[in-house]
What we know:
Layout: E1 16-20, H1 27-37, E2 41-43, E3 46-48, E4 62-64, H2 67-75, E5 79-85, E6 88-93, H3 94-102, E7 106-110, H4 113-122, E8 127-132, H5 136-146, H6 151-165, E9 173-176, H7 180-195, H8 198-204, H9 206-211
The structure holds guanosine-5'-monophosphate.
Amino acid sequence: MTAPASPSVTDYPGNLYVVAAPSGTGKSSLVKALMELDSRVSPSVSHTTRAPRGQEKDGREYHFVDDATFEAMVSQDAFLEWANVHGNCYGTSRQAIDDQIAKGTDVVLEIDYQGALQIKKLYANAVLIFILPPSWDELRGRLERRAEDSDDVIEVRLANARHEIVQAQHFHYVIINELFDRALFDLKAIVHAQRLKYAAQRRLHSETFTGLGLTSLDSID
Ligand code: 5GP
């Protein structure tokens, strides 16, 4: 659900990482750990119509807005993408992303697969990462141990997860979160590899490139 556009390869210095996963897979913990380790990576704070949970603060986890405000933002084309996820609306504001990647910040979007696929259509060089659980038994166990949801809600989340993981085939990278440290290592490796691409290296080490006579601005992606 977004304004259609052909994918553009932006020449922004910052990278856009889009991380999706079914509920209970450990996506939020992995992204949080990445940001604690790497100050060049920032979150994108989405807008949502759902109510804040527990200690959540407006402007930190989400911008919490009412239905009318969300609808007004949709009609003003303020969202890069938005989706209805489990009965609530969530959207990524266009301005928040462009401002950050234009100034060289790497931005992580922790959004559902519908939003991720919309971003892929808009930004040809966005990096899409899907987190998988190691097995259905383990995912069920994690949802039960989390003790946040009733049995019925857990069943709904598992049913949704079966539908969601099929989308992993459309993502660039897949991380299996069996051991947290291993999965975090994998996530860091993806971020690091992105920074070693020709265009990024040329931007960061322009003197070395010029000294070596490497003046081409073209790269394979
Ligand atoms: P929760 O309500 O548990 O924080 O999030 C529910 C789902 O909505 C998660 O899969 C989360 O990643 C996703 N989500 C959060 N923000 C956005 C957004 O801006 N766009 C989309 N498409 N999904 C989002």
